[in-house]
Prior knowledge:
The protein is of the alpha/beta class. The protein has seven helices and eight strands, in the order ββαβαβαβαββααβα.
Amino acid sequence: MGTPKQLLPWAGNTLLGHAVTKAKELTNDTILVILGAHSEEIKPTLAYAAVAVTVHKDWKKGLGTSIAWGVGQLVQRESQWDGILIMLADQPLITSDYLSSILNRYKAVEQPIIATTYSDQKLGVPALFDRCYFEELMQLTGDKGAKEIMQKHKDKLVLLHAEEMLADIDTLDDYRRLYMANHQS
Length: 185
């Protein structure tokens, strides 16, 4: 993209800053930002946000390893978490209301996994995992993310639909298209 995706402008902030803002609208609990590529450039942009930041040096090994690293870091900082909400910076249409609906569903089910489902029935993030899955999350490897854990525990899986909010930014064209559609003067 020519620049770190997380630092692309969005809604008067950056993509990452926007995601942090949405998370902060939701909770006063610790928000842990996991950085990988370009961490030295990105980290200073979060100084205002009062969030915990950790750098996953093996980010090239994939999303699964980043999730495992992040959960491990969170558990080291505080072992009393009830659950963990995983979200990405490249989904800027996700609203704090949607994130709140994930938390509300979490409170209604014992030991749940609350995941977002896409139009093609694909499971993904944002997703919330009860603490009973922390050990499994910390064992993730590669680039598959936590889908195997979701499928393994499908009896505890609650799916929420967020189709109109699920626009990932994977290319500069994706970003430009989404930015133009959502930043009308």
